[in-house]
Design brief:
Chain B: It is found in: Nucleus. The complex is a heterodimer of chains A (305) and B (522). With 305 residues, chain A is an alpha+beta fold. Chain A is 48% helix and 15% strand. In chain A, helix 1 packs across helix 3. Classes of the chains: A alpha+beta (305), B mainly alpha (522).
């Protein structure tokens, strides 16, 4: 038994040496004369004492030293709690749903709930409402920042998608690009120069929006780029990418994105000038039926306009 | 040939040629190639009426004939050409284009040829000269030579072409022996371009002036008719009939659409350059080519209109030094803009955002659509389902497991441009048919009123011609009451609106058709 204790201490030291974890192989190399059975007993003892973490990676089992603080916190808990805590910790900052905890730990629902309440009261974990499904709650470690996919990032405040905020940003960016294009057009220089000066980099737009101060949250350049993308999908803006030297303001990975306000290439097409083009009951309409061109109320209204 | 197309063709035929021709024409379009007997029996029309209708249809190029299925010797079969009937819708646009390019003379020439289907040059020139003279002041008349010069300009730029020679196919004449067949029974009728003399003017000189037609000239009619007959006999261009080259007009429309798109997207200067490039390659490009011929910057520069001050460096900067227009891509972009415009007007700008997003990114999951478009999940879902129910957006399933379980399948939204364009084209046909029917309905409703107003106008005209007094005229005018006058005004306004909208929808039809044809031939 003493030998085991000595081996434990030895293994623990090894773990301290390699904070990322050690495999069976490492232990064997260090202590070649230790039998497999004894090694296993030592490791199990360390695990039950809560001083080691058991992890699995692609090549096999990994033993890692447990964080001293959490180790002390967990002292009062039993194995089940430790297991649940482990599972939650593994989920990182994305959090994990209670049903998934159940799958991973194979514990019955009632137990899980009890444990979760316990851990929450000990302030070891917290529940965060997910933006994807508003009823779902994910659990993660107390001191972790929830990932953007859970809270939704800058566009969500309290789980609500801020449509007006996005709309306002949308309009402001477009106005900025439009006025830039107008200035370029009025300068009456050669077409190429005009075209080039009507472009704005995403960095410029980002600076402009930040200076406007309409946003309570800090917006990153990426956020602005998602807004500019929606303008592209609105057909109001076009984008090109140019190569930029590393270190130029606003360049990312040697590229810069340029945006420019554009006009639509055609006027609203002929079909929509007729009421039939917009008619909600178009498919039900035929001559001699209840809905027909002869008795169409939309046409009558449109003709008298 | 879809039901909508046949319906529209029927309406167009009826308006332009009357009921009998409409019945025969629709029957041909629906039933494919048939011979004379079949047509007469199935439409319950007397044989001579059928023959006359077929003549009219052939004259206008709507109907082709060829030897029957059972080879030479069997009765001739007639085939309807749906596309050709749909062109009737576009006649106003052709005439207007001719007017902008070649003035009133050009306009009247094209109008006459369109109305008659095929015409000889001498006939056209005479008729147009007479019409122009009629509109001129007293004492002036139109020189034939002026009309001839407009005609030749139209031929030079390929807007008019000779009708294709009729192939010598076996008719029902029993005396035809195999030895006298010069051409084998061709399945497809010869095209106009297969004739090498397609754009050659006949070597005739026409001199003379237009004659003014007066209503009191009735007495002269028999003499005039005889004279006209003698004239046409001496002209020497019988058998050389001319028709309008629709493809050439279509090329022109397509170029116009591209130029205006470039002007909106870039600027005026670029559009001028594109216009020059397209004009230079007008006669060298076949209508279905995907690209124009490459042109060097020098050629372009030299061909720019001289009063357009644009310096060399700017032209170079405009890019594409060997200018070559990708016509197919241009048409695809125009078609795409059309689709987007329809979605925008019909469903709102946010649905249009989703639509454009799907066009760009091809396949997206529900969640990705919400993220990219920055639209709240509930609304995005609603809009996507609406678009899906209208068949503008399709759902593609990609299973993760062989059993296609819904929870383990990817559902991707996608937009296929070509089928969607076809769908919208059918919508357009239906819309135009609806507009025409409404117009006919409105006219029918107010038939009594229209007839009355026509009678009153006739009375007024005859009174004026015989020199009546103002009191008599006002008395006649007052026969139409004020509310009736208002009703007439409203009716006129309605009919004009319906007419002009038909033309506008036809513009959409043109863009979509061009795109579909260009994609098919790629």
């Amino acid at each position: 038994d003493c030998i085991i204790k000595v081996k434990c201490a030895h293994i623990f030291e090894l773990c301290q040496q390699f904070p990322h974890g050690i495999t069976d192989q490492v232990i064997q190399n260090d202590m070649p004369h230790l039998e497999a059975q004894q090694r296993a007993m030592a490791i199990n003892r360390l695990l039950s004492l809560g001083q080691l973490d058991l992890l699995r990676n692609s090549s096999g089992l990994l033993y890692r030293m447990k964080d001293a603080q959490t180790a002390s916190k967990m002292k009062g808990s039993d194995n089940q709690e430790k297991l649940v805590y482990q599972v939650i910790e593994d989920a990182g900052n994305k959090g994990i749903w209670s049903r998934d905890i159940r799958y991973k730990s194979n514990l019955p629902l009632t137990e899980i709930n009890k444990i979760l309440k316990n851990l929450e009261s000990k302030k070891l974990i917290k529940a965060v409402k997910s933006v994807a499904a508003s009823k779902k709650k994910v659990y993660m470690l107390y001191n972790l920042q929830p990932d953007r996919s859970v809270t939704g990032g800058a566009w969500y405040s309290d789980q609500d998608f801020e449509s007006e905020f996005v709309e306002v940003l949308n309009q402001q960016c477009f106005k900025f690009l439009q006025s830039k294009a107008e200035v370029a057009r009025d300068s009456k220089q050669s077409p190429m120069v005009q075209r080039n000066s009507s472009f704005a980099t995403s960095h410029e737009v980002w600076k402009y929006i930040c200076e406007l101060g309409i946003s309570k949250v800090d917006l990153s350049m990426e956020d602005i780029e998602t807004i500019l993308n929606t303008l592209i999908y609105d057909g109001k803006v076009e984008m090109t990418i140019i190569a930029a030297k590393e270190g130029t303001v606003g360049s990312v990975d040697g590229q810069m994105k340029l945006y420019r306000g554009v006009n639509p290439i055609i006027q609203p097409t002929g079909l929509v000038k007729a009421p039939c083009g917009l008619c909600p009951v178009f498919d039900d309409c035929h001559e001699g039926g209840e809905i027909s061109p002869s008795n169409c109320v939309y046409m009558a209204e449109w003709l008298d306009f | 040939m879809t039901a909508q197309e046949v319906r529209l063709c029927g309406l167009l035929l009826q308006e332009h040629f009357g009921e009998v021709v409409e019945r025969i024409g629709t029957h041909l379009l629906r039933g494919g190639a048939q011979n004379l007997r079949t047509i007469a029996n199935e439409t319950n029309t007397p044989l001579d009426l059928v023959k006359k209708s077929l003549c009219v249809l052939v004259q206008h190029g709507v109907c082709d004939f060829g030897s029957g299925r059972r080879g030479p010797g069997s009765p001739v079969e007639y085939r309807g050409n749906c596309e050709r009937v749909l062109r009737i819708l576009r006649y106003p646009r052709y005439i207007y284009t001719a007017k902008t390019l070649y003035g009133d003379t050009g306009e009247l020439i094209v109008e006459e040829v369109l109305q008659r289907g095929h015409m000889t040059m001498s006939n056209t020139v005479k008729t147009v000269a007479d019409r122009l003279t009629h509109n001129m002041e007293e004492g002036r008349s139109m020189e034939y030579s002026e009309v001839v010069s407009s005609f030749s300009k139209l031929v030079e730029t390929h807007f008019l072409q000779r009708c294709p020679p009729v192939a010598e196919t076996a008719t029902a004449a029993p005396s035809a022996t195999p030895a006298t067949h010069r051409t084998p029974a061709s399945v497809t009728p010869p095209t106009a371009e297969s004739n090498p003399d397609c754009y050659k003017l006949p070597p005739v000189t026409l001199t003379g002036r237009g004659k003014r037609r007066r209503s009191s000239d009735d007495g002269e009619e028999p003499g005039g008719v005889k004279k006209a007959k003698m004239d046409s006999e001496s002209c020497g261009d019988e058998g050389i009939y001319w028709q309008v080259n629709f493809e050439r007009f279509h090329q022109h429309f397509r170029d116009q659409a591209i130029i205006s798109a470039v002007a909106s997207k870039l600027d005026q200067t670029s559009s001028e350059i594109v216009r020059t490039m397209l004009r230079m390659s007008e006669v060298t490009t076949t209508p279905t080519a995907a690209y124009t011929q490459p042109l060097s910057a020098n050629e372009i520069f030299r061909s720019l209109p001289p009063n357009y001050s644009i310096s060399r460096p700017i032209l170079d900067q405009g890019g594409s030094l060997t200018g070559r227009s990708d016509l197919h891509r241009a048409l695809a972009n125009l078609a795409r803009a059309t689709l987007e415009s329809v979605v925008q007007e019909r469903f709102g700008s946010r649905s249009a955002r989703i639509f454009r997003l799907l066009l760009r990114k091809r396949h997206l999951e529900q969640k990705q659509v919400e993220d990219f478009a920055m639209i709240p999940a509930k609304e995005a879902k609603d809009m996507l389902y609406t678009l899906l129910s209208e068949n503008l957006v399709q759902l593609q399933e990609i299973p993760k497991t062989p059993d296609h379980a819904p929870s383990r399948t990817f559902y991707l939204y996608t937009v296929n441009q070509l089928p969607t364009a076809r769908l919208l084209l059918q919508h357009c046909y239906k819309t135009v048919a609806n507009l025409i029917e409404r117009r006919l309905f409105e006219t029918k409703e107010n038939k009594r009123l229209l007839e009355k107003s026509q009678r009153i106008e006739a009375i007024l005209a005859s009174l004026q011609a015989s020199g009546a007094e103002p009191e008599q005229l006002t008395e006649v005018e007052e026969m139409i009451t004020a509310p009736e006058r208002q009703q007439l005004e409203a009716l006129r306004h309605h009919i004009n609106k319906l007419d002009s909208t038909e033309n506008q929808v036809d513009e959409t039809i043109f863009l979509l058709e061009s795109y579909i044809i260009s994609t098919k031939s790629k």
